[in-house]
Amino acid sequence: MSTFRKRFLANKTAVFCSILLALLCLTAVLAPVLAPHDPTQMFQDHRMEGSSGEFLLGTDQFGRDLLSRIIYGARVSLVVGLSAVLVSVVFGTLFGLIAGYFGRWIDGFIMRCMDVLFAFPEILLALAIVAVLGPGTFNTIMAIGIVNIPIFTRTVRGAVLSIKNLEYVESARAIGASTPRILFQEILPNVTAPLLVQSSLAISGAILTESALSFLGLGIQPPDPSWGGMISEARRYMELAPGMIIWPCVAMTVTILACNMFGDAVRDILDPRHRGK
Amino acid sequence: MGSYLIKRVASLIPILFGISVLIFTILHLVPGDPASIMLGTNATPEAIAALNKSMGLDQPLINQYLHWITGILQGNFGVSVHTGEEILPQILKRFAITMQLTVFGVLIGWVLAIPFGILSAIRAHSKTDIVVRVFTLLGISVPNFAIGTLLLLGFSLYFNWFPPIDVVNFWEDPIEAFKVFILPATTMGIVVAAGVMRMTRSAFLETMDKDFIRTARAKGNSKWTIVIGHAFRNSSIPIVTIAGMQIGYLLGGSVIVEQLFSIPGLGQYILEGIYQRDYPVVQGGVLFVALVFVLVNLLIDLIYTWIDPRIKY
Fold first, then answer.
1. For the domain bounded by A2-37+57-274, which CATH number is listed?
2. What positions does the domain ABC transmembrane type-1 occupy (chain B) (predicted)?
3. CB of A187 within 8 A of CB of A163?
4. Cβ B153–A242 below 8 Å, yes or no?
5. Which end of chain A is less packed: N or C, by CB atoms within 10 Å?
6. How far is A159 from chain B (nearest CA, A)?
């Protein structure tokens, strides 16, 4: 791990993006402290105003402070993005371990199921799941989580296949280790590198999908602020108050850009094929 | 090739079966009684019973599935609960619009992506390369609805121009269709271009390092003969792969772009189905898109063998 740390610190993009992401997480955690106003409080006399001393980024059609809503929106995006990836990682890892380790019909069955999930465009499957479960934060997390399970299953299965016949796994088997022990204590620690790369790349996708679902009115429900929802609401007033669209777009772009660049950097550090390029 | 084709098509059967089971289950995972949800809170018990009967919802699950899938195989996707219209003709009509939008978007994307991707690879670390890399990074990081909204905003603020509302068929009135589709297609095109450009750049960088390129150079071929005649075909496998994946994303992404630009395509049809809890429409629409996606992937696999005759299955 110390070589990982050394390589990580030597990679300027990785360091820069992790600082940026840390700041974003801090903003999300400290939202109640940082936000100048309650994100749902309506200042009736200050509707659709430009930036001013009191409302740094202006206000929306109900007179709510845009900056506060964007700060709280960071909370929603990050919570949904991270939780959704967590759901996919947990289930994907489990299925991948089982499929890769046991092989035969179990492998065949699990991988065919994953092929079926792969046969849908991502956003469409998420939409269909939300259509069944109904909108809301928890359901959005579940929908995005389920959609991404196949990527993790494939990643973990591939890694398991390449290491399950190595000597150290065989010796664990020879000393009579139980199957769960072999799976979780011997094999799992050695698939963490591809898992980490995949997770860091998946977070930006999850945030994108969340904002798209919220944009369509099927993700996070008003009055809770979410960047996708804010852009969707702002469309009707776009000529009167362009800031209502531009600021959430900026916030979202910075977040997703940071996640993407961080993911790429982690891949460059961990994947030997990308090293030195 | 023939036996590969048969094998490849046969491998689709379990997948198609899985897709149909998954979509069928969607309706039956709805918490509560689907008929009363679809009809809303004011529905009479008789109406609910009638809908249950007409959709066969009072039958055992396995019978319902068999009934549904036999219908689908015979081209009967059922009727919309909301409008009472046959679903398949609607899907086909709206898919034609979505296809026009997608093809237009893909064209814009490729025309941008391939030349600039190649240029940025053969002039790595130049100014062009930096511009291309910033563009690709932004293109994959800004959501398509944000790009579309900003385009709409820009055109209305600075040019005072909005796309026409009535959608026309490209074959009937190309100029009007161009006006309708240009902004949504550009929205899609930017996203497509970012992905394809990124892949083109990395594929070309890799190919230009190969020995056969050095040989071609040593023989005194000009730079562009090498790029077009030697490197292009050898770099095209990953480019085709990403292009194929993107067609799937576009079919899904069309839901958002169509909603944003009020284009009555298949994506909007599915979305209307979701908003109105018209589950047969949602089922039919999602099934249709999944089928198209599977067929596109099949086509991509076949294109591989055509691009690279060394690939044998």
1. 1.10.3720.10
2. 95-304
3. yes
4. yes
5. N
6. 22
